[in-house]
Amino acid sequence: MSFAPAAGQPAASTIHTDTEGLAHGDFDLPVQDGTIAAYYAAPQGKSGLPVVLVVQEIFGVHEHIKDVCRRLAKAGYLAIAAELYQRQGDASAYTDVPKLVEEIVSKVSDEQVYADLDASLAWAAQHGGDTARAAITGFCWGGRLAWMYAAHNPAIKAGVAWYGKLSAGHGPLIKQVVLDVAAETHAPVLGLYGAKDASIPLEDVEALKARLAEGNPKARASEIVVYPDAGHGFLADYRPMYCEAEARDGWRRMLAWFQRYLG
Fold first, then answer.
1. What is the pLDDT, as a whole number, of residue 1?
2. Ramachandran area for residue 45 (φ above 0: left; ψ -120 to 50: alpha; else beta)
3. Which residues are known to be catalytic?
4. Quick one: pLDDT at residue 35?
5. What is the pLDDT of residue 263?
6. Measured between alpha carbons, how far is 184 from 163 in angstroms, rounded to an integer?
7. What strand order describes the sheet that includes 129-139?
8. Which stretches within the chain are classed as H helix?
């Protein structure tokens, strides 16, 4: 896939990855209490694929997250993004972030998310995925969950976290934060952050580095990259905060990370 915008479009315009050579689409993911909406993309006609769980931004599984799945599929992965707070409401109906957090996101427990991600892996195993080679990546709200799930599920072999909170979560149901669990991660995690991100203090990033350095072998194998000129959401090409150079570099690093640990 290419990060180049279409002819005549500005550099920060939304990226649309074509579906040539891909199997993809929305589906109902079986979970503990019924089904939730999800999206997948994979190389068409192939099996035994390494699996990447894609964890949504705070805005849910919108077109950008689906496009991330297609980009990963173009790179040879079975990528799955589940609508992880569908039970609590429709994130797409909100334009006010504080209201979205108050009415939906704050009501989502990590335990609910873990169970749905477990269900995503189970679905992948039945649809061409090799869950012995499973990874997770997430953005913003999902960036925090990438660390949390890598510490929760030993099936995960690699993680890439894009600009998620480290010393906090969203709401009263959160029992642990990334700084609590990172030292005992089951998988090496690549953390990608922006130095100008007002929502993630650099002191938290330094604290994370210290926890990793004192942690288990997988924690010590983790890496942190801080982009000096980037703020929050620098991969989000559909938003003004997009930083093309940092997005390209982060994507390259992510694919290299997955190649290293998933083969």
1. 38
2. left
3. 140, 197, 232
4. 98
5. 86
6. 20
7. 22-31, 34-43, 78-82, 49-55, 129-139, 156-162, 189-194, 223-227
8. 63-74, 97-103, 110-126, 141-152, 178-181, 202-213, 217-221, 244-262
- 3-state SS of the chain: helix, strand, coil percent to 5? 40, 25, 40
pLDDT score for 2: 35
Residue that is written with structure tokens 């949504």 in the block: 56
- Which segments of the chain have a pLDDT < 70? 1-13
Cα(155)–Cα(15) distance, integer angstroms: 31
Per CATH, which fold does 22-262 belong to?
Rossmann fold (3.40.50)
Q: How far apart are the first and last CA of the chain?
A: 19
Region at 70 (left for phi over 0; alpha for psi -120 to 50; beta for the rest):
alpha
CA 241 vs. chain centroid, Å, equals 18
pLDDT in tens, 63-101: 999 999 999 999 999 999 999 999 999 999 998 999 999
Domain ranges of the chain: 22-262
Tokens encoding 257 = 């990370």
